[in-house]
Amino acid sequence: MSTLITVAPTGAESSKAAVPALPVTLDELVVTAKECEALGAAIIHVHIRDDQARPTLDQGRLRATVAALKQSTDLIVQVSSGGAVTDPEEARLAVLDAGPEMASCTMGTVNFGDDVFLNRWDFIVDLHTRMQDRGIVPEYEIFDLGQLATLQRLLARHGLPVGGHVHVDLVMGVPGGMPGTPDALVACTSAIRDLPDGTTFSATGIGRSTIPVMLASLSAGGHLRVGMEDTVTYAKGRPVESNMQLVARAVGFAQLAQRPPITPAEARRMLGVPA
Ligand code: KMH
Ligand code: ZN
Question: Which of 161, 182, 200, 204 is found 20 to 30 A from 105 (Cα to Cα)?
Answer without folding.
Answer: 182
